[in-house]
Write a structure and sequence with these properties.
Helix content is 32%, strand content 16%. The protein is α+β, with helices and mostly antiparallel strands.
Amino acid sequence: MKILKRILLLFSISLILIIFFNYPKLNMLSGYAAKSTASSVFLAKRDLDFTNATDNNFSPVNLATNTMNADEKIAISSAFGLLTRKAIYRDGLGAVLTLTEEDESATYLKPKRRIPDNKTPYPYGNAEQKDTIFNNIDYSKLDDALTYLFDEKNQTRAAVILYKDQIIAEKYADGFTKESKLLGWSMTKSITSTIFGILEHQQKINVQEKAPIAAWKNDERSKITIHNLLQMNSGLEWDENYDKISDATKMLFLERDMTKTQELKELVGQPNQSWNYSSGTTNLLSGILRKQFQSHQEYLDFWYTDLIDKIGMNSMLIETDLEGNYVGSSYAWASARDWAKLGLLYLKNGNWKGEQLFDENWVKYATEPTPSSKGWYGAQIWLNASNRYPSVSKNMYFFSGYQGQNVFILPDEEMVIVRLGLTKNADVNTFLEKVVNSIRN
């Protein structure tokens, strides 16, 4: 009996220690599940079963138990019954994890939206295009490219290919349509960067100026420019790791104000010499953008009035944190067709229906390789300068997000290619090669 009691005591102590050391991980696990569920169900209009079977169906997130209150638009996720997190959906602002009970009943501002243009044909409106057949396109090769992209290994949800302003190929996985909103994850960073380009074109900001962070004025961080932040080349400490408790996961799942996390970090390198990918940096940039406006409402509206709704990305919604800052690093949702419009704006060097939204030199600036990035990165935009995708031109550039969200801009071919999926391990190079080869010389 004494031996049994000792065994039970040791087991209890071991269990307590396991829970103690893994409790923070349970916080992240249930936090991810709750946020994902709330956004998928209430923003993207998917049901709970579909969400669990797709968006939440990977380890360890699939260990959480997810429920929801449809009337109050709340998602609740539990990690083994040991830790529960809630996420609420707010009209116009998307889903956010709560930190206190008061967060569930808090009031908030939301952006004003423009009425969609459903009369003008896509891409400059949302009406259907007239069928256009290009004699120099081999459509059988295009079909082969899409078939390849949507095989079981590549786990693609949506694909849209634009050529000379026309959709020449489009495909969706079961459960998704041209109206489906899909999370762009870090493609949101390219939207944040674009807002700076628009403000600079309007002569309201100069990205070469020092970052306006009061806490940095009396130390070495005072040398950091907005340009350094846009290029992820500030020299600030940051751990962008989603496989453990890191700066990135703590910011996304524990912080009320996500614009402050990177601000608190110390220099571990020299500005313009220390490229380090950081979602915290992008959210810091979102905070800098907020300071450019006299009111919170103006900040919320500008992203839509001067970019998102301006080019008819009417399905898009960028989620905010509890303090009302756009989570510019990660949380933009839109249809595949609307993601393609952002790529087309860049292909057109900032010109949309005759109006210059950002200077054409902004594209050159945003796609200039960041020092020490080995040709991989520009100003919140990924590059092919280092031949990452060897089957296409080195001047191709792209927006990129977690699990393989991509908008590829191919200036030589006058193409924009969107691929949204559930795995970053898809053979995108082969897909791009097949698409480019569909154009006859």
